[in-house]
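Holo model, beta-D-glucopyranose. Inputs:
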Amino acid sequence: MRPFVFLVASVAALGGLLFGYDTGVISGAILFIAKDFALTTHQQEQTISVVLVGCIIGSLAAGTIADRIGRRATLLGAGAVFGIGALASALAPSVLVLLCARLVVGVAIGLCSVVAPLYISEVAPAEVRGALVSLYQFAITVGILAAYLVDYALASQAAWRWMLGLALVPSIILITGMLPLPESPRYLFKIGRVKDARDELKRIAGNEDVDDEEAGIVASLSIHSAGFSALFSRPVRAALVLGIALAMLQQFTGINTVIYYGPRIFQLAGIAGNEAAILATTLVGVVNVLLTLVAIFFVDRLGRKPLLYAGVATMGVALSVLAFAFGQERLQGSLAGVAMVSVMVYVGSYAYSLGPIVWLLISEIFPLQARALGMSICTLGNWVANLLVSLFFLSMLQALGAPMTFSIYALLCAVTLFVVWRGVPETKREVLEQISLAPAQKPAAEVPR
Ligand code: BGC
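Output:
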């Protein structure tokens, strides 16, 4: 892979770092914010979930903005908005200011969650696109782990303002890194800057021979109408249904119950003390980072579908073991061990499958004319599902009990396997335009395979 392409993708992937850091940091910070501002439980819930509301707004707006001002400028803007929100959160003199600042942070994360994978996917050469888009998920997991460690290090000083304010660092790195980078060549073709677009394609390919790729992109632009009407053509509708299903199932299979409520699950399983539960959660963060590397190395070699089958099936088995263990009185003594192992296996399997590959697929299955808007809508579905799981997980535990709750997530893994089998095309090493054009050339019955 050319160092230039790797650099471009790595910088854009930093959008994931913002996302991951903020996801992870609030769980530790909220304890101290609650104390300083004497928050009620309801206000604590608002402080946490207002970010997700911002993400919903940001992801909804992202497609239109990315089509209007470009992928690069949108990412730069998102970095700046995130920085402002992080600073305002750290300095907030009142709960109201804090809530507004967290909403701004959410909007920036929502923008990044659409545009970072979109930009990477449009810049990446087909043979390494899977690895490069997976870098985005890798950055998310590094961000989550960094946040756990920062929370852990600053907890003794109750320094929540520093916990939130440190998010400024990744946003500054993202902005300075993005400034010298080029616009996506596909976007340049879309807005008619053909010469610049060709130059970028050559720079990415590392040679002059880009005629075939250019012809594919130009053909794709002429087949599909632009803007919102592009979303309603038959092949795009099929991609939309698949993308929304995958994006929502990524959340409905329960990953954020562990990421957000890890310590609670471990305490339920009998791991004594806050410290031990937090340490166990940090270990989850490490497993999440390391196993994402598996996706980076194998997603372009083995393909998207084999990793999804292996990962999601293992997630389902781990959840079933967890559900079974929580249901057995006589297992009480060994529950802590069983829970530790199954949660690690579950997170590890997610990390090389559903985590990165959902972002990858939704950046691949739309034709250029509909890509930004299509990704916007799928990502919106992801954030709505995220909000629902985070709002209802604790109530589900209370109302249904742990065995039933985890069984439901296991069942949703089975549903995901079915969707992968029936709907997901193997996109390994295919040029984006081949993927986008394929459904249009086939009879409708085969869409979107
Ligand atoms: C998901 C997040 C999740 C993270 C965990 C991402 O792909 O979208 O909701 O917290 O993975 O690593």
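DSSP finds 19 helices and no strands in the chain. Residues 437-449 have pLDDT under 50 and may be disordered.
Archived with the compound record.
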